[in-house]
Amino acid sequence: MRRHTPSALGFALTILAFAARANAQVAPPPAPSPAPTSPVPTTPESTSLAPTSPALASPPSAAPATPAAAPDLEALEGDLSQEIVSTTSRSAELARLSPATSVTVSAEDIHRFGMRSLDEIVNFFSPGMFAATQEWGTSDPGEVGARGVLLTQDLGCHVLLLLNGHAMNEVGSGFSSFDMSGIPMESIDHVEIIMGAGPLMYGTNAMLGVVNVITRDASHYAGVHLLGEAGSSSPTAKNYQMLSPGADGYLSRLGGDYRIGAGLGQNFSLFGKEASLLVQFEAREDATAAFQWGPQPTGLSYGPLSTSGQGQWGGLGRWKTQSDAGLVTLKVGDFEAMVSASRVALSDEQYITAPIGPDASVLQVLSLRGDLKYRHRLTGNIDTLSRVYVDSMQVGQANQYIPDLCAGYAINGPCTYQYHQNGVWGGLEEQATFDWFKDGAYVTTAGLDGSLREVGFRTNPIDSTGAIGPSGSVGVSQGTYVAGAAFVQQSLAPIKQLRFLGGARYDYDQLGGGRVVPRAVLAILPTDTTTVKLIYGQAFRNPTQYQQYYWDGTVELQAAHLKQETVQSEEISVEQRFLGTQKVFGGVFASQWQNLINYGPVTQAQFEQGAAAGQAFLPTAAYFNAFANTGSINATGVNIGYDGTAAKGRLRYGLNFSVTQANDQTLQGNGTTTTSRLARIPSWLGNARIGYSFSDDGPSLAYISQFYGTMQTAASVAGDTSAVTPTQWINRVTLSGPLLVKGLTYQAIVDYKVSGYYPSTVAPLPSPSPTTPAPVPQFAPADHLSAFLSLRYDFSLGGGGQ
Predict the structure, then answer these.
(1) Per DSSP, what are the bridge partners of residue 671?
(2) Which of 133, 248, 419, 520 is most open to solvent, judged by the fewest CB atoms within 10 Å of its CB?
(3) Nearest-CA neighbor of 539 among 563, 558, 518?
(4) Res 300: pLDDT
(5) How confident is the model at residue 667 (pLDDT cuts 50, 70, 90)?
């Protein structure tokens, strides 16, 4: 395979760097005047102010000294408004100079525009990333796509989710949850969204991008903080319009939400060192409005608990999510410790995939994560980062099965399918940065990462008495796996108008094998306000233990040997700042995906092989699916955006818009290849926002929206041309401000969705009888109107509101 390496260009720029250094030594420039302080948040990923960080300094100029000019207030305001990111290089740097396309969403904007979850932040602020909420008909988390690519039943596996640089993706199956992330929203200082193939610091999963949630520092969160929030959503009628309030059962079908939280921030001294402590807890529940499904005939027996009658499918249904999350961060000198714990439960209270009563499908995820960092400056130009991390996670899922499937486990009547997964993993990471001339012009970064994980899972078919069926536990797998990685990258800035970054990363995993991924970025800076970036990168994802080894006997067979998924991306981006705080940006991008792991029907040969291995309990291949490397995608697109502030920062506004074309080529069981448009992601999407603060401590009013084009569903890709969702326009108005009591504030949020369609379809299981009509897929509903009201009370430990 041909590898693209930056060696020739890197060598030439290295010579230029040393030449520039030699000229600077002959004619040294005058000492620079003090730079203005930039509003960079103090975070676990960034512990020094950006203007004094070597990574942000420009190379020295050999120009002769000139008299000091009057301060340019417009330029100063523009400098103060520039975004700072730390995810791409693990050190603070201006976003316009970072080796990726990125956006930073501050805690102020998260509150001002009424963001209630991580997937909303992605949808309303990112330049092309798209987070779909939890799927109807399953208890799985939502999907996440970007730049025209979203993989159905992916569960966020191709986006790397980080909490203070700590990977949150579960290692057994790779999923990450953005709608119920297990991260307390009130603890967030800012969110960095990195688009495209991930930076070299990160390995598997960073194919579509990286989302890094940076939590608050106690110095910006001192005192005690209490939160209470409640909301409701209107039901959707069978014609996908808003249900009339006078309809029968309207009140019982309303959706309901609540969120409560408590936090503490405290600065103190410990062992003679400056220390800070942050503690945050959050509990929430979101329940959609109930929707009427069916009825429609199926020819299948649903058992005595069915409310729709024998051979009928339908009834009211809703889904509900619950989340309890806690976070503790402690900083003492150069040490930073973090402990995160969460419980996330998702349930389908419905008569859909298994219409035999409420709580037909329940998923619960328990996680505990720990992280310890130590930053140390060995010399004036060598910085090191040492990190130890450990995680544990338990996943439990219960689905009520109809008798037709339960018969495979030798159980008469309905049964419960219980899936159990547990995993423990941990590792050690070392990183060193060598700034050759102590000014950020020539910086080498290298790192090592080693980890060990143990993951196991099994499925228990449970009969009506609560006992495991005659088949016993199925799909049992337990394994211990070793992984390691090494990376090196070099940045060069031989002249002020040119910056280059290049490097490579090698990863090894017992499941996926070894992989080298290169990355190269060239930034051209013709002026102080103009940036042009040329970005090339590769990324990969290892097959997970679940994809490689799981089987259940009635629906899924074990996969054949799976290979790593790979993506190669190219991008050109342009950013222009003007009038101090105004920014217009855009770019073109392309990506090529290979060996994508798809979940689809098995061939007759695969079924016979599974049956011979004792993994197929039902009589025909029609019941079964399996994972296989059958997909490839070519995607191209363009994005544009605008961002700015006015009225001394009180007025804030922004716009993102992207258009993409992505074709999915899937290898079929008969050896042919089909080409189709990807399901559940639009070809165009965007977001817009405007908000105004009436005074520094007064009320604020904000409007934000997301809009996107038509979307195919899995049913439409399969041939049902009517199963295409219409254009969607989501609108949110947020009003927030202080109340009469000192430290007490309110926030009122109103959401309105123009379309009542969600890009997913739900249908009963098909009958094996050829005389039974084929099931008719129904669109999943979107709640048209939702409203939320929250109260916050902040007070110091000494008493009294803040």
Answers:
(1) none
(2) 248
(3) 518
(4) 63
(5) confident
